[in-house]
Amino acid sequence: MSQLDALTLAVIQAGLQQVCNEMDIAFSRSAFSPVIAEADDRSDGIYDRDTGALISQGEYGLPVFVGTMQYSTGELIRLIREARVGAPEPGDIYIVNDPYLGGTHLMDVRFVRPVFVEGELFCWLQNTGHWPDIGGMVPGGFSAHATEVEQEGLRLPPVKLFKRGTMDQEIFSIISSNIRVADQRIGDIKAQAAALMVGESRLADLLAKVGRKTLDAAIKEIRARSAERMRAEIRQIPDGTYRSEAFVDSDGVVDEPLRIALTMTKAGDGLTFDFSGSSPPCRGPMNSVVATTYSSVYLAVKHVFPDVPINAGTFEPLTIVRPEGTFLDARYPRPVSGCAAEVSQRIAEAVFLALVQAIPERVTAAPAGTSGNFALGGFDPAKNAPYVMYQITGGGYGGNAGHDGLSNGCSTIGISKTAPVEVMEQYYPVLFRRFALREGSGGAGAHRGGFGVHYEVELLRGEARASFVMDHGRFGPPGVLGGAAGAPNVVRIHRNGETFTPLHLSKDQNIAIRAGDRVEVMTPGGGGYGAPGTRDPALVARDLRRGYYRADEAKDLWGEDILGGTQS
Amino acid sequence: MRRVAGIDVGGTFTDLLLTEVDSSGVRVRLAKVPTTVRNQAEGVLAAISAAAVAPADLDLVIHGTTATTNAVLERKTAKVGLITTEGFRDVLELGRRTRPKPYGMFGTFEPLIPREWRREVPERVMADGTVRTPLDEAAVAEAVRALLAEGCEALVIHFLHAYANPAHELRAGAVAKALWPNPYVTLGHALLSEFREYERGTTASVNAAVQPILDRYIRRLQDELRTQGFSRDLLVMNGNGGTVPAGLVVEAAAKTVMSGPASGVMAAAATLAQSGLKNAITYDMGGTSTDVALIAGGVPEVSAELTIDYGLPIHLPMVDVHTVGAGGGSIASVDRAGMLRVGPESAGSEPGPIGYGRGGTRPTITDANLVLGRLDPGRLTAVRPGVSLEAIRAAFARDLAGPLGMSVEEAAEAVIRLGNVHMTGAIRMVSLSRGYDPRDFVLFAFGGAGPLHAVALARELGIPEVLVPARPGLTNALGCLVADLRQDRVRTLNRPLDGFDMADLRAVLEEQAADALAMVAEEQAEIEETTVTYGADMQFRGQTHLIRVALPSPDIDRAALQELFEAAYFRRFQVRLPEIRAVLVNLVTSVIGRRRPFPLAALIDGRGRTDLAGARLGTRPVYAGGAWHEAAIYAREALPLGAEIAGPAVIQQIDATTVIEPGATARVDAIGNLRIRAEGPSA
Fold first, then answer.
1. What's phi and psi for B117, nearest 5 deg?
2. How close does chain B come to A79, measured CA to CA in Å?
3. Is the pLDDT confidence value at B117 over 70?
């Protein structure tokens, strides 16, 4: 390592990062699916040739993919070694979405491309993109009731979609025959492949500049340094054992909460996460595959220490006891469509709730923690065409030592923006009656939680089926250090003059609605931080003036004394 | 004699460039005075006075101001009320479900219009422009009265789908204007007729929030100029790189936001044109931030998707300047794992680099330049007594060289190199990721620190040539002087191209052109030639991002437009998609009133430039490529035209220092630019 000076290392680290950032941007800018193009539900990275370990990942990628993609590259390498998948050749791109092979849910489709230097494999490039449909029993893929993975959609083992630079039309036609609104997928496939090619050419520039041997050595050293950086952060956490829990409303099939139990142990410069005592595998689609479980822990820790660069070394000081026998280590054929969007966020919440006990200045109270997936599939008689509309929404973030939580923050595991109401109404036969801040939803505290969203959408024409996979409908996001929980998620269907709430509160599928019927959603507020009675009375008064809370609510939440001082 | 003054107010200095034209030719005067933060007009007048000219003798003043940008960034904006569609008053506060950074759950956001001043009224227009709920005019009047009673000074009326049918906004605007005591009423669709309610509404709220501020400022400036006898025209810079008459600027006040960086790019475009060049990446490095932009084919790239600050998108056509929060003040450190880092922390301008002597104690990029002799350490004590090179070296030894096991010089060089690597990321984002190869461009370096780093940066990127203009520290003022009058119009159609009635396309473009031409015509005296350019924002069906396609004329047939779009798409993404239909999303028209070109050669004073030896100030040790070199030092003002200088050398002028790295060669061209062949070892 002596030949590698600090400068070379830093230059190569920045160079690898730029390769990944450019892949991220190229993918989004040319993608078709709004889930990728608008919502950036994708990620790109570089992986080790022998193990699949993460070398570098784009800063603009979806956080939940930060840990999963190295596992899926690792599984591909294993299958190639076992001769169950063809060996890589220049110009190949493998496609895979099997959740049990280092994945998330079926909609997250991974493309993997080998990079050769002078005829030898140098590394792998991979990207993941969330496809708007992958077949299965529900348009959009978020089934609430599936009991086996086959119901959730088309499952692809690693196969070469591109062979020596040319797309295999036969594989493509199998895919396009098994998904909804298939005509636009060719555009997404080309965009996803083109992003990897952009990465390959940028990486070639970097290789030409620094040379293969130096790059190899630097990658190893950067990994070691990232591990050391993370250890330095961990050393600041007081030694001890911290316990927390988080609950998924239900699995969508059996109406009982699923418990995540976390015992986090800090000793020296390591952190151990043990999920023993969590609920067993469930019948419905709220199981998590182990790659997603690990990734959820990683992304939560990264949220707390955002300055540590991301590569395999970053996570070396974190030990996760494999949660065998629980719903956090699902095996075939358990359904998993809720794992990437929802279970992952409950896992992250458990990590936050454990860490906040140890380092309360650096962690917030619980955020809304649901992606708010609402899919509406139907047929528009005016356009004479079928459609699948996706709506995602944010919620309140947790209060924290510095300030109140953010309102309508993005999901913990995402960076995806919501589509504007005007865009939704242009593309789909719907009308939003409102898209508003959800008053009263922020959990009380010295610093209150941020607010969720309250929207109501009416079907204008034809018939459609509504499906939901959300969470925190049974319990609101917890407050910490004396703060109160944020308001729980609410879904209401206004159908044919009657109003009802789905049995599983936050999860349901294929609810038939027709023109004039409405779907109303209120997303969770963030948890409060610190005792409400210690809040600055001026902030309570401001919140009242803004109509964030009603006077009677405020009296209940913050106490008469604070209000008394602010009535003047 | 005709006198025209370009005056740019920057964060630190107010710069003036004055041209005097008569039958004997063109003469130039320059002035640089401190910016007067509380009332920028004082600095403007001081600059005129420093140029030894009476305002009464000026024929035209072209002005760039940061008044609106600063007001937004510091949230010192006017009190604004909003009247909007029932059910949607929180759109401006909720945004689109984001957080400030990908990682980290902390962060706050305050919209420009707080909730207590946002009112809803019954009305609803559908996506196709039809009315579902008629406008309740009585409710509008009531909301207007309530907001006035609250003390709101400006008003936004922003209804859903007003881009498809503005009737309700227009009617509500008429009701409001009858009651509102001033002209500060902004209709959402008037500035920007595109869909996306959050972006359009935020753009309107920015406009309203800065309108009173800009109006007061422009009035005060005009009053003070008038008191001193100036009664001619005042033009104001916009972020699109064009100017508008002072009388029209307030109505679309949001367009002045970010006009400073835009004028620098316009100056670069004018300089390129007179240097026989077409393609440049502009690189303006200051103390706290760096702006980069791309000029292709002589025309600066324009974007309508810029963001002023977290949660504040402004979707108006603006020169596409990419700002990086890194500059001379970026702090270098060694992290807990022993990795060298430069930024993102910055010493800013207070306390600033150690070398500024304002209490800074942590090494910065500027300090690294001092340690290596790239900046003249001899000037240190002249500026601030008490700061010594030894103190800076000690800080480098303590914070960097020691922990990294390097010499002080090696550490300082590593800091500069790593800072450059971060800059290359920004430059790749404006070039490579948009389908341009940086090797086809020159690097146009300006700002206080741009010319210091440009040659090394060019090597890092494979850019063959660096151009440092004659007056790198006065580029924004030059931008004012050379900027044309400009009006942009955008209309959203969002219809598939096949089946589109091309007569409609023509009608929209012609209407846009007529409207914009009428506004530009107000300054007929200034204009030598008027050009109209047409464009279409297009996408493949199902996509959400847009590609701008330039149209040769409003009279274009469908097949030709399809072909232009496919070619533009291929250049950007290297992908062809014959399977998918094209969609015409926006039609765009820009009218440019070209002003007489300003001969840049007038910027340099030919006298006293005898030979290279006459410009030579001596030598000093400069560290580069791991070794000390005895570098020649030259005075920029005395370099003869055509002179050639081989690196290592340093060229100094009052407001900028250019470093010619070892192996590079510089030549002074006919209009005083330094043209540097960057080739040589990657530093």
1. -110, 20
2. 31
3. yes
**Using CB atoms, which residue from A302, A402, A456 is nearest to B103?**
A302
Domain with A39 in it: 6-225
Q: Which of A11, A353, A412 to mutate to test the interface with B (most CBs of B within 10 A)?
A: A11
Beta carbons of B288 and B327 less than 8 angstroms apart: yes
Interval A156-165: pLDDT, tens: 999 999 999 9
A31 in contact with B, Cβ within 8 Å: yes
**Dihedral over alpha carbons B654, B660, B661, B663 (to 10 degrees):** -170
Domain B484-595, architecture per CATH: 2-Layer Sandwich (3.30)
Which residues make Cβ contacts (< 8 Å) with residue A561, sequence separation at least 6? A533
Phi-psi region of A60 (alpha: psi -120 to 50; beta: other; left: phi over 0): alpha
pLDDT band, very low/low/confident/very high, at B111 (cuts 50, 70, 90): very high
User: Chain A residues with CB inside 8 Å of B93's CB?
Assistant: 407-408, 437
pLDDT at B604 over 50: yes
| Total Cβ atoms within 10 A of residue B529 | 10
- pLDDT tens digit string along B514-536? 998 988 887 777 788 899 999 99
DSSP state of B11: S
Q: Are A24 and A69 in contact (CB under 8 A)?
A: no
Q: Which whole-number Å values give the CA distances from B356 to A14, B324, B413, B530, B655, in the listed order?
A: 29, 22, 20, 47, 15
Q: Do A435 and B90 touch (CB under 8 A)?
A: yes
- The Cα-based distances of B561 to B493, B570, B571 in angstroms read 15, 14, 16
> How high is the mean pLDDT of chain B?
90
Tell me what pLDDT residue A567 has: 46
Bridge partners for B322 per DSSP: B292
The CATH number of the domain covering residues in B75-211: 3.40.50
What does the alpha-carbon distance between residue A199 and residue A206 come to, in Å, rounded to a whole number?
11
A515 part of a folded domain: yes
Task: Please report the residues numbered 403 through 442 in chain A whose beta carbons come closer than 8 angstroms to any beta carbon of chain B.
Answer: 403-404, 406-410, 412, 415-418, 420-423, 425-426, 431-437
Residues paired with B466 in a beta bridge:
B443, B676
Query: How remote is the C-alpha of A494 from its chain's centroid?
Result: 30
> Taking CB atoms and an 8 Å limit, are B340 and A9 in contact across chains?
yes
Instruction: Note whether B445 and B292 are within 8 A (CB).
Output: no
Distances (CA, A) of B504 to B78, B272, B388, B510, B565: 40, 38, 70, 10, 18
Inform me whether the C-beta atom of residue B102 falls under 8 Å from chain A C-beta atoms.
Answer: yes
- CB of B580 within 8 Å of a chain A CB? The answer is yes
* In-domain check, residue A354: no
Note whether A5 contacts B116, CB cutoff 8 Å: no
Q: A267 touching B, CB under 8 A? A: no
Q: Say if residue A231's pLDDT is above 90.
A: yes
- How far is it, in rounded angstroms, from Cα B115 to Cα B455? 50
- What is the average pLDDT score of chain A? 93
Task: Say how many domains are in chain A.
Answer: 2
Q: Measure CB to CB from residue A11 to each of B124, B417, B543 and give the nearest one.
A: B417
Does residue A565 register a pLDDT over 70?
no
Whether cis (ω within 30° of 0) applies to the bond prior to A333 is yes
Angle between helices A212-235 and A6-30 (to 10 degrees): 90
Structure tokens at B493: 């159609």
Q: Six-digit token pair at A261?
A: 């139990």
Beta carbons of A9 and B104 less than 8 Å apart: no
Closest chain A residue by Cα to residue B194 = A422
Higher-confidence residue of A415 and A452: namely: A452
ipTM over 0.85: yes
CA distances from A251 to A144, A239, A293, A338, A519 (A): 8, 35, 16, 9, 22
For chain B, domain boundaries: 2-72+215-256, 75-211, 484-595, 601-675
